Amino acid sequence: MTDSHRIAQEEIFGPVLSIMTFRTPEEALERANNTPYGLSAGIWTDKGSKVFKLATELRAGVVWAETYNKFDPASPFGGYKESGFGREGGKQGLLSYLKFE
Which residues of the chain have pLDDT under 50? Predict the structure, then answer.
């Protein structure tokens, strides 16, 4: 598929696998961030040090490394950009229900 395909530009919910090629990590980051959405992302790489650099630059609510769709109930979850705002789950998810005076 290419960047112009609908599946590359919209949030598609369901059992979907899209495959795009890239030559450099910088190209992959640019293409991944070139969408108005950012619910989640996954990184698979040959070196663990690459994961940290890529994860900090991806504009996604959740970034998984070497796995996908695994959650710790104590961790917050939420989108980025048009994929939502705020967090649910974990301490951050509870903060919106609390009143501080």
Answer: none
